[in-house]
Specification:
The protein is of the alpha/beta class and 159 residues long. The protein is built from 4 helices and 12 strands. Helices cover 18% and strands 33% of the residues. It binds NADP nicotinamide-adenine-dinucleotide phosphate.
Length: 159
């Protein structure tokens, strides 16, 4: 399984239920990497998408404990075990914090966009640089958009 996230210098990923910032080049790359693959996400992350609708061109596997929650065009799972029973190996875990933390141990590759800034935050991705179980296998050239510097870094699980 894969995970993909945009983090700031402190591995923060969100604030007040939203992203820290929107970088259009990063959104484009996210679409390129995930299209054609299942995506796994929590109910709160779904709410951050335009119209609260699932992502197109991808099977959306959404977690919610609310028995009344439904999402048109998506599959809703009430617990992790039933989701894992249906999630293919090429799935991308796309957030948020609770889902990253729960599924990181199932992931082999993590695509991180490192944003060279520090934002007020209330949600974080686990710090992979401080974890000997992960190593950087690819670091792309730093990029800049609207004054925000960022870099794509790929981590792989150390066997
Ligand atoms: N920077 C990034 O790359 C990135 C990516 C994605 C999200 N984010 C940010 O992350 C933040 C959201 O993270 P979050 O942790 O608060 O929310 P989340 O993980 O998106 O969603 C949490 C919800 O998912 C459901 N859930 C989680 N684990 C479950 C389980 N084991 N079984 C059944 N349902 C489960 C529950 O839904 P119910 O409450 O309905 O039961 C829970 O309230 C936002 O700020 C968002 O913008 C950032």
């Amino acid at each position: 399984m894969n995970a993909i996230a945009a983090v700031d210098q402190n591995w923060a990923i969100g604030k007040d239920g939203d992203q820290l910032c929107y970088i259009s080049a990063d959104l484009k790359r996210f679409k390129e990497l995930t299209t054609g693959h299942p995506v796994i996400l929590g109910r709160k992350t779904l709410a951050t998408f335009p119209g609260g609708r699932p992502l197109k061109g991808r099977r959306n596997l959404i977690l919610s404990r609310d028995p009344a929650f439904q999402a048109e065009g998506a599959e809703v799972y009430r617990d992790m075990e039933s989701l894992l029973a249906q999630a293919p190996e090429d799935s991308f875990v796309i957030g948020g914090e609770s889902v990253y933390r729960a599924l990181l141990s199932h992931c082999d590759t993590v695509y991180i966009t490192q944003i060279s800034a520090s934002f007020p935050a209330d949600a974080w991705f686990p710090n992979l640089d401080g974890d000997p179980g992960w190593r950087v296998v690819r670091k792309e050239e730093p990029l800049e958009e609207k004054g925000i510097s960022f870099q794509y870094v790929t981590y792989q699980r150390v066997n």
